[in-house]
Specification:
Helix content: 55-70%
Number of helices: 6
Number of strands: 4
Shape: rod-shaped
Structural class: alpha+beta
Distance between the termini: 114 Å
């Protein structure tokens, strides 16, 4: 990505961010990975509306006040309450609705900061990594237990087969001895 707009924005006073956004277009100056800037958006303007919508989607509804600061709607300060759909509070609807230039325009001014989002994202990544490691460890332990059970079953089956084979051999040997004993002439019988 072209870093020139980011360098320009980083050297401009926050009050001028909105002026640049209007003049050269928000999409030319916003770094969506870290869109920390001062915004003044006219929600009847499609580009401004889109920027506001996208920023609202970047934040969790349970932690909005850590991302949106100094929020004013039509010049009146708005206190952000976590858990309330911020976009609905700003526009009257929680969905993306293409703005109509014939409707009343709402001017929204605020500072947006992703620092807490970044911290939360890193915490979430760390938590996911720990969970994955735990699940993999449990899966590996389960695989080891299954292997040990299978080996024990194979060993027991092997011993049973050996025991059965010995019993059969003993039985066959015993039968052979009995047959030989029956065929052998008895001392008091006459041989014909």
């Amino acid at each position: 990505p072209d870093l020139y707009p980011l360098l320009v924005i980083s050297n401009v006073r926050p009050e001028r961010h909105a002026l640049l956004g209007k003049r050269i277009g928000w999409n030319n100056i916003i770094n969506w990975i870290k869109p920390d800037m001062h915004y003044i958006l006219d929600l009847s303007d499609p580009e401004d509306y889109d920027v506001g919508w996208r920023l609202s989607q970047l934040t969790s509804p349970h932690d909005q006040r850590h991302n949106w600061y100094n929020l004013y709607i039509d010049g009146r300060e708005l206190d952000i309450v976590d858990g309330v759909n911020l976009w609905k509070a700003l526009t009257g609807t929680s969905k993306y609705v293409k703005p109509d230039h014939n409707t009343d325009s709402k001017m929204v001014e605020f500072d947006f900061c992703t620092t807490s989002m970044l911290v939360m994202s890193l915490a979430a990544i760390k938590l996911q990594a720990r969970w994955k490691a735990r699940v993999q460890t449990k899966l590996y332990q389960r695989q080891l237990e299954e292997r040990d059970a299978r080996l024990a079953l194979e060993e027991a089956t092997k011993h049973e087969v050996i025991e059965l084979t010995n019993n059969v051999e003993t039985s066959v040997a015993s039968n052979d001895n009995n047959i030989q004993a029956d065929d052998a002439p008895k001392p008091h019988e006459e041989v014909v």
